[in-house]
Design goal:
alpha/beta; single chain; 9 helices; nine-stranded mixed sheet; three-stranded antiparallel sheet
Length: 327
Amino acid sequence: MISLTDPTTANPIYFHDYHPTPSDLRAEVLAGLGKPRKQLSPKLFYDAEGSKLFDAICELPEYYPTRTEIAILREHGAEMAQHLGREALLVELGSGSSLKIRVLLEALQPAVYMPVDISSEHLQQSAKALAATFPRLEVHAVCADYSTPFELPVDNHEHPRAAFFPGSSIGNFEPADAEELLRRVGAILCVDGRLLIGVDLIKDPARLELAYNDAAGVTAAFNMNLLSRINRELDGGFDLSRFRHEAFFNAEQSRIEMHLLSTCDQQVGVAGEIFAFHEGETIHTECSHKYSVDGFHALAARAGFQPEQVWTDPQQLFSVHCLVYRP
């Protein structure tokens, strides 16, 4: 544990580094491109340029999830705080949008805030910024991969435990993997711990597809940047003019899929290996599963969570759930 306390603030800031295993970009890319159906993990999107493009996506008029979730948090924050319990130990899984957590911190006023993120630099910057805004908040920043098992560095039960998992990030996991992740979160929270989680809802496929095919082409650039990153970091030979962004709703799987589609027969070299593409063949880069309220509650129940409350926007685009862990 390292103290990051700023002498200009009164509150303690602690940094706990669990040294998450760094991603082996070369191994992951070669393995993904070598599959019968080519696939790359969405976590590979987020180099510096990809992170910048994703921030731009969140501001797009077509991309409703971020602003809708923030609006729900602002409108119902006080009620959410009552469910989670004031003076809680609040764990945030994937410390992303500082705006979302600020809204919740203002309403909840937890005793301890514990952001968990795999990026050490981002985590420390975020923790310091929030500590400056909330000078009486004790902050324990945890550098860990929340998609794998880990233990909380502050292991006392003086405060009720709660977790915040915004952004419908749960939708990026296959349902069986999402269930397993929720089960691990429950083990961290212990019996009667609360989870506040954002979940994107099933809606008109045209509305969904528009959110991932914006008129300005920002999402397309975000997807294509994955090929640019491979070219930059792995001596890749992708000709971006021979690929195009494709995103569509898979009704059978209830998910948006993003792909990079080859517009011709071609061969591409990556890190000394050659991969053949047929015209129309794709690299599957992301899934974003959408749920009904009842469908998500059924998934959560299999992981040991009971629904306590759900909040939605007037258009029923997005939902925020309070779940209680009672396996």
